[in-house]
Structure formats: C-alpha cells, structure tokens
From TrEMBL, chain A:
<keyword id="KW-0819">tRNA processing</keyword>
<keyword id="KW-0479">Metal-binding</keyword>
<dbReference type="InterPro" id="IPR036511">
    <property type="entry name" value="TGT-like_sf"/>
</dbReference>
<dbReference type="InterPro" id="IPR050852">
    <property type="entry name" value="Queuine_tRNA-ribosyltrfase"/>
</dbReference>
<feature type="domain" description="tRNA-guanine(15) transglycosylase-like">
    <location>
        <begin position="192"/>
        <end position="442"/>
    </location>
</feature>
<dbReference type="Pfam" id="PF01702">
    <property type="entry name" value="TGT"/>
</dbReference>
<dbReference type="GO" id="GO:0006400">
    <property type="term" value="P:tRNA modification"/>
</dbReference>
<dbReference type="InterPro" id="IPR028592">
    <property type="entry name" value="QTRTD1"/>
</dbReference>
<feature type="region of interest" description="Disordered">
    <location>
        <begin position="1"/>
        <end position="30"/>
    </location>
</feature>
UniProtKB/TrEMBL annotation, chain B:
<feature type="binding site">
    <location>
        <position position="225"/>
    </location>
    <ligand>
        <name>substrate</name>
    </ligand>
</feature>
<feature type="binding site">
    <location>
        <position position="313"/>
    </location>
    <ligand>
        <name>Zn(2+)</name>
    </ligand>
</feature>
<feature type="binding site">
    <location>
        <position position="198"/>
    </location>
    <ligand>
        <name>substrate</name>
    </ligand>
</feature>
<feature type="binding site">
    <location>
        <position position="318"/>
    </location>
    <ligand>
        <name>Zn(2+)</name>
    </ligand>
</feature>
<dbReference type="InterPro" id="IPR036511">
    <property type="entry name" value="TGT-like_sf"/>
</dbReference>
<keyword id="KW-0472">Membrane</keyword>
<feature type="binding site">
    <location>
        <begin position="101"/>
        <end position="105"/>
    </location>
    <ligand>
        <name>substrate</name>
    </ligand>
</feature>
<feature type="active site" description="Nucleophile">
    <location>
        <position position="275"/>
    </location>
</feature>
<feature type="binding site">
    <location>
        <position position="343"/>
    </location>
    <ligand>
        <name>Zn(2+)</name>
    </ligand>
</feature>
Amino acid sequence: MHLGLRNEAGAAGTGPGDTAGGPRRTGQVGDARYGGAGICRWPPCERFRSILVRHVRRFPRFGGGSLFTGVVWGGYQLEVAFKPAVLTTAPPAAHFAEHQEVLEAFREGAAKLAGLHDTVLFCSLQDPAAPCPAGYNTSKVGRGAPNPDPGSCRTCETRTCVFGAQSVSLWSAAGRIELTVPKYSLADGDAQPAGSSLKRVRRSVERTLTHLDECVLLHQKTAELVGAELFGVVEGADVREERVRSARETAKRPVGGFVLDGFQSGVMDQALRAQLIAAVTAELPRDKPRLVLGVGRPDQVLSCVEGGVDLFEGFFPFVATERGCALCFRFAMEPDPESAGTRLPTLGPSHLHSVSREGNIAAASVSLAVLPHRYRDDLRPLVVGCGCYCCRNHSRAYLHHLLVTKELLAGVLLMLHNVSHYSSFFSSVREALATDRLETLKSVVLG
Amino acid sequence: FSGRAIAGAPLVLRILAECPVSKARACDMTLPHCTVNTPVFMPVGTQGTMKGVTAEQLENLGCQICLGNTYHLGMRPGPELIEKAKGLHGFMNWRRSLLTDSGGFQMVSLVELSQVTEEGVKFRSPYDNKEILLSPEQSIAIQNSLGSDIMMQLDDVVSSTVTGPRVEEAMRRSIRWLDRCIAANRNPESQNLFAIIQGGLNSELRHICLEEMTKRDVPGFAIGGLSGGEEKDDFWKMVTLSTDHLPREKPRYLMGVGYAVDLVVCVALGCDMFDCVFPTRTARFGSALVPWGSLQLKHKQYAKDFQPIDPECTCPTCRRHSRAYLHALLKCDTAALHHITIHNISYQLSLMQSVRQSIIDGCFPQFVRAFMDRMFPSREQYPRWAVDALASVGITLN
C-alpha cells in the first residue's frame, strides 16, 4: 500500500504546498465510495495520545489493535487515491508489542498486513468507538479495564477503555521508531478535559507543540517517511484563547493537515464545539485538511462541516452495528440543483422524530434497533430505497432472526448497511457543499 | 427474489463417469433450483445462515447446495414466517439448492429428555418449555414450508455405539416413518424426499433396511446412523455394504461425513453427497484446513508467517491475507473466523471438485494416491481403515 500510493500521489503531481481549489470538499475518513483512511490502534500513553491510522476497510472490520501508525496522506491526496473502500474500527489494543515485532518483520506496512493495501492509511490513537473523556487515565494496560464512569461517555457502556501505561518511554525510544516505516507514530496530543485550569490547558498546548516539533524532526530525518504526511494536533480544551493559540502555532509547523482534538461527542456540547471549531479553523490554512476526532452523529457532523472540518472518523456505523441497530436517518436531497434553496423537500410519513431546541437530532430517528418483536415478520428491507447489499438482498425479518439466534451474519449484514448508509450521507454532504445547499441538507437530516 | 423450479421431475441424475477401478462416480444432479455437480460436499448453514458468510460469498465460492436445519428453523423463526417469506430460499436469499434434514438428529442429540414413540419424538422446547411432538407428518410439513429441494425423512435415530434390540426397533420404525413421510409430502413435484438407511453396525439389519427402503420410489437415499463415534473399521464396511445395495441411478448421500480423508475414501466406496459441520466449526476455533492437514492459527509459530494459509488456494482469504494477520486478528476480532470459515468451505468444495474431475478424467485412483501422499508424512501413517477400505474397491496405496 505504502509504495503504491506514494507512486500515485507522485504521479498526480500534488504536493503539500498546493492549494485545493474549487468548492470545499469533505471526505469522510472511511467513506465507502471514496476511499479513506484506516484506523489501527495504538495504546494511548498515559498522558499523550498519538494520531493513529484509521483503516478504511472492507467489512468484516479489522481489529486487533496495535497495528501501528502508518502514514497520513494529505486531504487532496486522499481524493486522488480514492478507491472503493472499506470501513473498520479497531477495538482497544492490548498486544502492541507483539504486533510491533510482526510489523518490523513484515517490512511492508500495516495496511498491507491487514489486507488493506488498496486504501489510504491514517493513524490515530484513540479508538473512537470507545471514547473516554480527555485526560482520563488508569494505569491498566489492555482490555478489561472497565470505564469507571460510564455515564461520562455514551458509547462506553459495554466497551472497556484502554489507557496504557506505555507512556513517554515509547516516544523516547527514538531508535525503535526509526526502525520501520509503519511504526512511526505521528503527532501527539495531550488533551485536557473541559473545565481544566487555564494553567493546565496552557501546559498541554505547550507540550503538544513541543512534541510535534520532535516528531517533525524525526519525520524529516527518516528516509522511509518520505511522501508521508504528518498531522498536527490542535488542543486547548474549552479555552478559546488557547484553542486559537494552539491552532496558530501548529499551523506554523510543516504539517500536512490538522487534527482537532478534545471535541469528541460526550466531551463537549454542540454549541461550544461549534464556536471553538470555527475559531480554530479560522487560524488554519485553507488548503490543508482538518480532521476532528470522535464526532460521528450526523447532526454533529454537519455542525463540524459548517465549522470547516473535512475528515471524520468512521466509527459511528460500527457503534450502531454493535447495538444491533441499523442507521436510518434521512439525508436525501432532491437531485435537481435548480430547486436548490427555493423550497424544502417534503417530509414523508416515516419522519417521526422531534427536534430539540439546540437543533439536535433525536436518537430514535438516527437508527432503528432490529431486535424488537415487531420486526419479526417485517419483510421490508432495513431502509426502503437503500442500495446496499443488505437492503437489496435481505429483509428486516431475516435480520431479526439473525439477531435473535445470535448469528454472526447479523453483524456482517448490519455493518454493510450502516457503512453504506453513512457513506451515502457523506456523499450528500459533499453534494450539498458543492451546490451550496447545506442548509437544505441540515433540515432533511434534522427534520 | 423468487426461485424458479425446473419443470418436470424434481430430481434427475445424470452419470457422467464411473471409475473403472473403484465404485466412484461423477454425476450431475438436477434439482429444482439448480444442478449440482457430484461428488459434492454440502456446507451446513444450520439456522439459515452459514456462520457469518453471506449468500453471495457462498455463491462465489462455488457452492451449489447447502443445508438448513429443520429443528432449529422450525423453532425459530418457525415455518409460518418462512413460508410467508417465500420459503427458506427467499428468507435467506439463497438462489441455489437447499437440503433440509428432518430434525430427528438434533432432537435426540440436543434436547434432554426427548422421548421416541411410534407417534414421533416428544421433547420440550428449549425456548418456551412447551412440550412438542415431532412426528413424520410434522417434520415433512415444516420442510414443505421451508421449500427445500431435498427433504430428509424423519428417521428413528440411534447412536452407532448402541447395540441390542433398540437398533432393530429403530430400523423398522424408520421404514414405517418413511412411508408416513412419503404420504405427508405436499409437494412431490417440486421437493425430493430422501430415505435414510439405518441398521447401525449390523450387516443383517442394514440388509433388511436396504431391501425394504429400496422398494419405495424415492428419488434418493441417505446412509444414516453412522459417523457418530463408531470404529472406522465398522464405519466403512457399513458404507460399502450400503452402496452395494443401493440403485446405481439414484444419488447416495452419506450423512455427517466431512473430514477430507473420509470424503475421498467414501467417494471411492460409491457415495455422491456429503455434509458435515466440521469445516465451519473448526474454523471458529482458528483451525484452517489444508491439503496436508490443518493449521492451528492461534499458535505462536504463525505470528510472523506472512504466507497465506495455503499458497495454492485461490479463495478470497488466501488471496488477500496472511497467516500472521489471521493469527493477530484471532486474538481480538470475530472477523478472523469469517476469513477462516471462507477458506475452509473453499477447501472442501475444491477438494470435491478435484475428486470429481479426476473421476471424469479417468484417473481417480492416481488422485487418491497423490491425495494420501500429500496428507500424511509417510505411508506408515496412512490410517489403517482407509487403506483397507480403498483396497476393498481396488485402490492400493503403494
């Protein structure tokens, strides 16, 4: 994968300095039609979290954690390298060291080892499907460390959170990092929870920048990383001045893109997130992609897109699948650009949710659980009109049966649908941006 | 989706080639949903699904017929719903052929306190604790709703390790139940009912059963009551005895046989169809089947082994993934099981295709020798029973 994509990018003649012209493009990391990045997990250090690779891959998903950091391609290169892709989420990593050796022996990169050599690899640290509040640390390594405060993180009820004690030593083992290309970990972010003292936030921003500078140096020295991109992490918790400072300073470094950390769903509320993201992206160069970690719900995605975000982690379909749910939120806009902005699409009878004052989407309209008895003999597809494999070939009744009998195929089919649905949503987002109809899309999604 | 049955007889067997040495034959068996090439291994998709493998994946692997399980499906989701969904084909969206077993085996093996009477098998549903009777009529009714291309009669199943009068009782009852099943079949034009030869490990009883059941005009016969832990020496003798007395022009289905060696030997003994949960079940323990045995992918030795499971295998798993990757994946994700399941199904299907081709090409005995040579490190390790069984049909392993 590594070599192939490098050649492709080279052939396309784009480089970090090019400005992306035309309307803003968004690409979901993990867009099933447009390629994307992969995620492989790396156990977070006690204080620091690195950007890991996020795999976009064919279902069934790749798990197994500790595949290491791969290399990141700039946003425009992502578009060039787009291929039909795949989505995956890695569960918490526990076997970091073992896999590191394996990758070293393999010498051809994480993506190829995982059979994902035709996708782009983006490395981040945290598993967004098991997000935990920023700065939350335990000293346990590996799975089995339950989240002591499940209420703090909506998606954490059944998953264990992993915070490794593989801390700075990993980073300071510069020799190890240099050994193999796929083993390079990208920029670090030291996240502080909202509400932290100003002093702590300032220090975390500093630390993040210092670490980034180290990474930049290493990156420049390492031959195997030529053609790979480094993303810088913007921190700053909920302190506006620090956010702006972090953004400005990070933008001065030779990075290929930016990761906006500390904005995860459940960590920060929508209104504040929107404000801070706008403030951050105002400081960032137009021609470099911005990725936000841990945001997946469609209304929140739209809010981030409005704020200038390009890339999202694709964990949301996975989380739905794990709950036995099929994504069903609406995102279809009328295809005729002539009618853009002139009238709202009519809402069908299946549009049954309510919209709260902040414009949040009601949970019931985002996905439907297939286990309830009423679907037992419902021979319709999960979502009428959906073109995914599951909806073209199977009924709710069959899915229901698979869930009741706890068959493995349930997850396979649900994931196929959920990835497809989510990807199509992102296509809609891009279409809306290209035709200046984001408001229309918002009203369709929110209802 | 809606399937289309081929008009006319629901089963037509065309014998393409017969091995001049052994009793092996290669046939085309035309069923309502599609033609099946034999010898054939039928993967088991118990609850209307092949353990995580989609219908499309299964089709792409070249599977032409697979099994559904009447007991499980009869419990959940039940025959009415499946009938409403256009049969099991419609419910799981499988276009090709389906075989359903009668449910008898599951009941005696899975359900505690099941009680066999002349009426049928009485048991308690594990799901709602109600008492249920599975009679021949009831079994066929369910299978009629499932709409499978081949249905199995309800037989009185006894373990092959049982001896004494129970064996004869079961054999005779199975004959009577066969007649009741034939009478109960609502769809004789579109669904085939196979008889199941019983008689345990007793030649006399087997003879009687064969004689009686072959008097009935059923489109195919299964050899049952074997592959249940009996000595292999006894096993193969009952198989060959059965095929000696089954009509040439009807298919022979040996139930529950699935290890590679067993498949090859039993083809030599004259069997056409096989089923077994082994390949899919062993996949879920991380065991990958290969021509020289099996790889236990959980073992450390595969951690840095970057070859595919079988470098010569063309299945999707072997084309894209390595042993090292699967080894790592096995530790933490069910995805690994899917990959290995796909490989194992592919292995079994490819094996049978090779067997079939060698019969057609007239070199089946050579194929058997090469197969055994690959599978076992030395001649001394060839299983005695296999050597004897093959010798009995003229294939010597020198």
